[in-house]
Design brief:
The complex is a heterodimer of chains A (about 525) and B (about 325). With about 525 residues, chain A is α+β, with helices and mostly antiparallel strands. Chain A is about 30% helix and about 20% strand. Chain A has two domains: about 60-255, D-Maltodextrin-Binding Protein, domain 2 (3-Layer(aba) Sandwich); about 300-505, Dipeptide-binding Protein, Domain 3 (Dipeptide-binding Protein, domain 3, Roll). Chain B folds into two domains: about 1-85 and about 280-315, no CATH class; about 95-265, MetI-like fold. In chain B, helix 7 packs across helix 9 (about 175-210) and helix 13 packs antiparallel against helix 14. Classes of the chains: A alpha+beta (about 525), B mainly alpha (about 325).
């Protein structure tokens, strides 16, 4: 009997420990009250709750809006900081911290009237000195803006509630650039800007947003606390712009890099909202009564062709052959396997935006293999391998690239595929002559001049002088119609030279527990207006 | 014994100096740029260059190494590029969760692995041996993350009794809440490590049990318990202690995949995160720290041989 006990003791030890610890720690998943029974309640008036737990897919390297272009940085700091303008649902700038603005006829002088009575989280009122310091730091840090404002012009204070900038060259798209998602001009106290260092950025996170910085434990979570003094611009939430109601006293943004854990976390109710789920899990989650699926615009997706010296992309006929051969539907279906998370179209700007155009898109997604082979023959391609780089950090990049490689091989090209980590991928993107092609996605932008895919300093090096002249027509336009027409010419020129293959726009798969109502999202997930049904 | 320990410590210093060169070189040979990792893909070339200069990365590698090793010897491991803290602060924050994970996992592994190994050795070739050995092979072959995911599926998703992932300190969430987050990672690692310990225990015991002096002891009519614990255990002990030391070292150094998966703020997660972001000072500091830890654990294991087996003590003296 004693021997038998000894034999089984070791085997049941683990189970015993699990059960005993489980008994004393049972609150882990059930105490937050996200059980299925509550989820069936009907939506009612928004009510205040204590805590919201959100699981994000990445870990921000910084919370300083100007120190990183990463989407995760914006996903975290947008609740703390606001800009003078925010992007509305039509991808247009809407006034947020400014009451109104005026531009002269040739868009060389802009005057911004600030809203009065807006308080920073430290209790001080936002005034022109703070705005000037914040915007001038933005001018010095944001590379896209540097290409718009080229003569070192600065924002100036007119009075406590008025700020202006005078430019040498016209800049029709300035206000749109002010609400681009990457490196946005967050308004913060002048003292915070003055204390910022070159390599570390700001060390205090004080803004005017609906949530205040609470605690940041790197690799773990960011705690945000409701800002009771928040004062919105006075109009209903429209995209990222407008009043931003918060119905939680505290919001924890957890950094959960493993998609499987995020999926399990929303199923168990450990998290109330999760972002960026695996598309493979969509079918399973859609039949779970405790989970509600949601999608938010990720941005634009396409195939970057390197046109810098020393790459195969300098051969225009070869680029043409690839453009005609690619089946964009197939690539996007592989990258986003769940239905409804990708819109395949060829405009570089999104549907619903005034900039949307199909000009010059004939060759794209034409799947015309005969024309492709004809161009390939004319290109004089000698069998040199095409170097395609990708990463597995973002599964859609890898999955889309595998189909892309297959299609290139079907065309008759030799392909050398290299899979690297994200930091190495960033280096590839920035280094001339190190690759030929890659699949990439980018956050949606409000103006075509902010498109990464027309960059002159990376992302394929689009440096044709004729194109830059055409692009200048967009920034120096005097009206919407003139700017849109100028952009149409730009897109036509780019596609005519097979500069880039747009695949379309894609969406993140997010989810909430069934008791979360009013969840709203546009370019990334948002908790404004979301509340927990009682 | 004292002379032996001094000799070992001198060896450790030389090892660490060689290691420092290797760690520094490997860290800087890696492709990828910390300035780019910080600024993101939209940053311009001039922004990247400016930040590289701020970080001191524009200096020649030898100058960077000399500066780093001088600071390290004086006890300064530098500042993290991405965390508003020094490397020592980052390490001291992370060592606690890793140590806790390591101690609980190792205890589970010992409590399962050693009794199972002894039982299997005693019944060599029998049903118990076969079952335990098969389970051990399965445990050693199965990746820890897969076992962890299976536990999450069972205990979190299906039964709803344990949290999926995360880490709550005792001060913030109380002891029971804290432990509930540690159960799945600890049991996962404990089971994986127990498979290795069971295999080593079994083979060491089986080998010693076949020796003539054990047969003599049996012939003398000594009780099985006395033979097992007084003769077999002391002779097989050195091998088992070695494997326990290695196992504990690997656990405390951070079980990278598991800590990342379960979001435990330990050494493993710190190293993975720093490698992905190319946070050179943290990578160098953390790897050096882990190396010192390994060397120290080996030193303790080495010294403990003398206590387990008096013959070793005599030979060394």
């Amino acid at each position: 009997m004693k021997k038998n006990f000894k034999k089984i003791a070791a085997m049941i030890m683990t189970a015993t420990m699990m059960l005993s610890l489980t008994a004393c720690g049972g609150g882990g998943t059930t105490s937050n009250g996200n059980g299925g029974s509550d989820s069936q309640q009907a939506a009612g008036e928004p009510v205040m709750s204590d805590v919201l737990k959100v699981a994000l897919n990445a870990d921000p390297p910084t919370l300083d809006p100007l120190m990183s272009t990463g989407a995760i940085v914006r996903d975290c700091n947008k609740y703390i900081f606001e800009g003078l303008f925010e992007m509305n649902e039509n991808y247009e700038p809407s006034p947020q911290l400014c009451e109104s603005y005026e531009a002269n006829d040739d868009y060389t002088e802009f005057t911004f009237k600030l809203r009065q009575g807006v308080l920073f989280h430290n209790g001080d009122e936002m005034k022109a000195d703070d705005v000037v310091a914040s915007l001038n730091r933005w001018l010095s840090k944001n590379s896209a803006v540097k290409s718009l404002i080229t003569n070192g012009e600065q924002f100036e204070k007119v009075d406590d509630y008025t700020v202006k900038i005078s430019l040498t060259n016209p800049c029709y798209t300035l206000t749109a650039a002010m609400c681009a998602p990457a490196q946005f001009p967050a308004i913060m106290p002048k003292s915070v800007v003055d204390a910022a260092t070159e390599d570390g950025g700001i060390s205090e996170y004080i803004g005017t947003g609906p949530m205040k910085f609470g605690e940041w434990v790197q690799n773990q979570y960011l705690l945000l606390e409701k800002n009771d003094d928040y004062k919105g611009p006075g109009y209903e939430l429209d995209g990222e712009a407008g009043d931003k109601p918060i119905y939680f006293k505290e919001v924890y943004l957890y950094f959960v890099t493993d998609a499987t854990i995020r999926t399990a976390g929303i199923q168990t109710g450990e998290y109330d909202i999760v972002s960026n789920l695996n598309y493979d899990d969509v079918e399973m989650l859609s039949s779970d009564p405790n989970v509600k699926l949601d999608k938010s615009l990720m941005g634009y997706t396409g195939i970057i062709m390197n046109k810098a010296e020393g790459t195969l992309g300098t051969n225009e006929k070869l680029r043409g052959a690839i453009t005609y051969a690619l089946d964009c539907d197939e690539i996007m279906a592989a990258a986003y396997p769940a239905e409804g998370y990708a819109d395949v179209y060829s405009s570089m700007m999104p549907e619903g935006s005034k900039w949307y155009t199909e000009k010059g898109t004939e060759a794209i997604n034409s799947k015309d293999m005969d024309k492709a082979k004809e161009l390939l023959k004319e290109s004089g391609y000698d069998g040199t391998p095409i170097k395609v780089v990708t990463n597995q950090v973002y599964p859609q990049h890898y999955n889309g690239t595998l189909v892309l490689v297959q299609q290139l091989e079907d065309l008759g090209l030799e392909v050398d595929l290299e899979v690297v980590d994200w930091t190495t991928m960033l280096e590839y993107k920035k280094t001339k002559g190190t690759y030929d092609l890659y699949y990439m996605d980018y956050p949606a932008v409000t103006t075509p001049t902010s498109l990464r895919t027309i960059s002159q300093t990376d992302e394929g090096w689009t440096t044709w002088p004729e194109f830059l002249d055409l692009l200048n027509g967009v920034t120096s336009a005097k009206s919407d119609d003139e700017a849109v027409a100028a952009w149409e010419n730009c897109q036509e020129y780019l596609f005519g030279r097979y500069s880039y293959v747009p695949l379309g726009y894609s969406y993140y798969c997010n989810a909430t527990t069934a008791d979360i109502e009013g969840y709203h999202s546009i370019s990334c997930q948002c908790i404004y207006g979301a509340y927990k049904a009682q | 014994m004292g002379k032996y320990i001094l000799k070992r410590i001198a060896g450790v210093i030389v090892t660490l100096l060689i290691l420092s060169v290797a760690i520094f070189s490997i860290t800087h040979i890696m492709s990828g740029d910390p300035a780019l990792a910080m600024l993101g893909s939209d940053a311009s070339a001039e922004q990247v260059e400016a930040l590289r200069a701020e970080m001191g990365l524009d200096q020649p590698l030898t100058a960077q190494y000399i500066s780093w090793i001088k600071d390290t010897i004086s006890g300064d491991l530098g500042d993290s590029y991405f965390r508003h803290q020094t490397v020592i602060q980052a390490l001291s924050e992370r060592i606690g969760p890793s140590t806790e994970l390591a101690i609980i996992s190792e205890l589970i592994a010992i409590l399962i692995g050693i009794p199972l190994g002894i039982t299997a050795a005693k019944r060599k070739g029998g049903a118990v041996d076969l079952a335990a050995s098969s389970a051990a092979i399965l445990g050693m072959s199965m990746p820890a993350f897969l076992l962890g995911l299976l536990f999450i599926l069972l205990f979190s998703v299906n039964m709803g009794v344990l949290p999926v992932s995360g880490y709550v300190t005792v001060a913030k969430g109380g002891l029971s809440n804290h432990l509930s987050y540690m159960v799945i990672p600890c049991v996962t690692m404990g089971l994986v490590q127990s498979a290795l310990i069971m295999r080593i225990t079994r083979s060491s015991f089986a080998e010693v049990m076949g020796k003539d002096y054990i047969k003599t002891a049996k012939a003398k009519g000594l009780k099985e318990r006395v033979i097992l614990y007084k003769h077999v255990f002391r002779n097989a002990g050195a091998t088992i202690v070695t494997i326990l030391g290695q196992s504990f070292g690997s656990l405390i150094a951070g079980v990278a995949v598991l800590e990342t998966m379960f979001n435990i703020p330990g050494m493993g997660q710190l190293i993975v995160d720093s490698v992905l972001k190319r946070d050179y000072p943290v990578i160098q500091g953390a790897v050096l720290f882990v190396s010192i830890l390994y060397v120290l654990i080996n030193l303790v294991v080495d010294i403990s041989y003398g206590f387990i087996d008096p013959r070793i003590r005599v030979t060394r003296s």
